[in-house]
Amino acid sequence: MKHVYLSYPITSKIPVYGGIADIKCNQVKSIASGSSANVYSVTMENHWGTHIDAPNHFFENGLTVNDYPADFWFFKNPMVVYIDLKPGDLLGCSGWTDGIKPDNDIIIFKSGWGKFRETEKYGIDNPGMHPEVGFFLREEYPSVRAVGIDWVSISSFKNRELGRQAHRAFLDPDGINDPVLIIEDMDLSHDLRKLREAWVAPLRVEGIDSAPCTVMGSIND
After folding, report:
1. What is residue 100's predicted lDDT score, i.e. its pLDDT?
2. Which of 20, 139, 151, 182 could form a disulfide with 113 if both were Cys (CB 3.0 to 4.6 A apart)?
3. Percent over 70 (pLDDT), the chain
4. Contact of 196 with 74, CB cutoff 8 Å
5. Average pLDDT over residues 4-20
6. CA–CA separation, 210 vs 189, rounded Å?
7. Confidence class for position 221, pLDDT limits 50, 70, 90
8. Which helix H or strand E contains 123, and what residues bound it?
9. Alpha-carbon distance 53 to 151, whole Å?
10. CA proximity to 88, closest of 187, 17, 157, 20
11. pLDDT-derived band of residue 23, with 50, 70 and 90 as boundaries?
């Protein structure tokens, strides 16, 4: 068995929804300058890089990422869906739902869009999800607690209104069964056909809706 990262490191320039952003990383203390230790400050938005959308992202009465207990973030029965998405495509419920098992707790969609991550195309021409996916999973497979994608957002930048509807379908605290959290901008470049488990470690900051996260996977050799 081997363990891999399914999230990207935070870099000085990072693709975001609608373009590319700069991360402000400043050295506060420096050993080279005579300090006893190296210390840095990092400034970024909480929806940049690999991150989790929690219900409070779209709903004032929704849970924040910090409201979930530790055991929520351990996914023992992942399902990986291999799909082909073109720029601006909206993923619906056809062609992949037959493979879902009643005990799947996270569904990870691997589209190959990671190959565009170093270009503006990644944040501007990205595919999205149709709201029907959120409604379907919540009604038919309540064991699914999260979905993950290897593109910048479930909201296609060129179809933002439908993207907002898709977020609400997944995250509405008053919808059918529990909300399904969304992990966006994952690194799914590994061979995941034998993915056994996935673990998500969100940055726990009081007062914010959602958070950057580190995601790791356990893969059978």
Report:
1. 97
2. 151
3. 100
4. no
5. 96
6. 24
7. confident
8. helix 121-124
9. 14
10. 157
11. very high
Mean pLDDT calculated for residue range 117-130: 96
Domains annotated for the chain, with CATH where assigned, are 2-8+45-219 (3.50.30.50)
Q: Are 53 and 80 in contact (CB under 8 A)?
A: no
Phi, psi of 71 (to 5 degrees): -70, -15
Question: Which pLDDT score is estimated for 199?
Answer: 98
**Which residue shows structure tokens 């709201």?**
131
The whole-number average pLDDT for the span 44-73 is 98
With beta carbons less than 8 A apart as the criterion, state whether 182 and 167 touch. yes
Strands (E), the chain: 2-5, 13-16, 19-22, 24-29, 39-43, 51-53, 74-75, 78-82, 90-91, 106-110, 128-129, 146-149, 181-184, 195-202, 211-219
26 Cβ contact partners less than 8 Å away, ≥ 6 residues apart: 40, 41
List the structure tokens of 88. 């601006």
- For the question of whether the overall pTM of this predicted structure is more than 0.85, the answer is yes
Q: Which residue has the tokens 């589209």?
A: 111
Amino acid at position 160, single letter: R
Q: Judge whether residue 130 has pLDDT over 90.
A: yes
Q: How many residues does the chain have?
A: 221
The answer to whether 4 and 190 have CB atoms below 8 angstroms apart is yes
**DSSP category for residue 86:** -
Helix (H, G, I), strand (E, B) or coil at 45: coil
